[in-house]
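The methods section describes the discrete structure representation at length, but only in general terms. An entry of this sort, consisting of the sequence and the corresponding backbone structure tokens, reads as follows.
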Amino acid sequence: MNNTPQSLRLNIGFFGRCNAGKSSIINLLSGQSLSIVSEVAGTTTDSVIKSMEIGGIGPVVLIDTAGYDDTSSLGDARREQTLRAAQRSDVAVLVCGAADDYSAEVEWVERFASKGVPVVVVLNKIDVLISPKATAEAIVARLGIEPIAVSATSGVGRKELIDALVAAAAKIKDQAPTITGSLVEAGDTVVLVMPQDSQAPAGRLIMPQVQTIRELLDKRATAVCCVPEELEPTLGGLTKAPKLIITDSQVFGYVAERVPSGTLLTSFSVLMAGHKGDIDTFAEGAKAIDSLTEQSRVLIAEACSHAPATEDIGRVKLPAMLRKRVGQGLTIDVVGGNDFPAQVGDYDLVIHCGACMFNRRYVLSRMAACEAAGVPITNYGIVIAHLQGILPRVVWPTKNNK
């Protein structure tokens, strides 16, 4: 549980007005004082994140957010953080209290509904409300959702809230595709080609490699790992050609020349693109490369924040490959971590990494922003395969065979 990456956990966001009791509800769920609780409005500023385990769901991330009605001097910045938390939430908990009008809550329910995010409504502080029943009826009338009656102080409603979260999680459990989908079945042999350069720290494997190996083991497939230089001896040592070769995208061309007849080819980045986003949209977006000119602007988005290495794929290799194709005048901006421009429409193409550090919901929200702005978006591995002319040979799981 403790070692499960946040990107693989169900992200549960807690939203509501200032002093609705979001922090208290999270403390109740976790059994710990994780978030500061105060009667002073605006106590929660930046989103507070806590990893834990909930029985019936598994590893989760609880996200405590600032009140969406924050009118303090930092209100705009806090609301921006709350909106960002909403983009990554797989399940939303809307914490309500007594209010004359629930118009803000209606807007948030509609926001989540439009994204297919299940909403659990909580009526908090029932121990101090004059008429909890009348308040609950008012919430149902406005939101159309029966609230879970909770007292964070006494612990009343904790079990019911957990049951509601388990039910909400079950609704989306089967939506996320696996990494290899129908490409790999039990008994298949898969060769993984993994360069060990400056971006692969000594003693460790990068996250996409670890996650893929684990999935192959869960599928009861045979995973054979090698560095690029040992690919041919590795293939020669097998009794039959492997079902699939998964390579680091940076050596796509090298590996493609050595793939045995009948063996499928893909990359870790391509597989992660399908696992975390819409792979067909990424593939379509790569076509925009052929229309770029030296007057075009490209955004390269990395999910992780790190100090650039000399062999950095996003900051060094991809820009060099693109400028070699388009021209040195091509403008390329690079962002990392949670940074993503609000004015994405200023770009002619967005190229996203495999997003192993993000959950699927967050990647899809970025794709939706690009779609709304009319900007094509694609993926590291797909771009490299396209530039090297091997994309037609590259495979990925289809939506119906996830």
Summary: The first strand starts at residue 10 and ends at 16. The longest helix spans residues 158-172. DSSP finds 13 helices and 14 strands in the chain. The two ends are 25 Å apart (CA to CA).
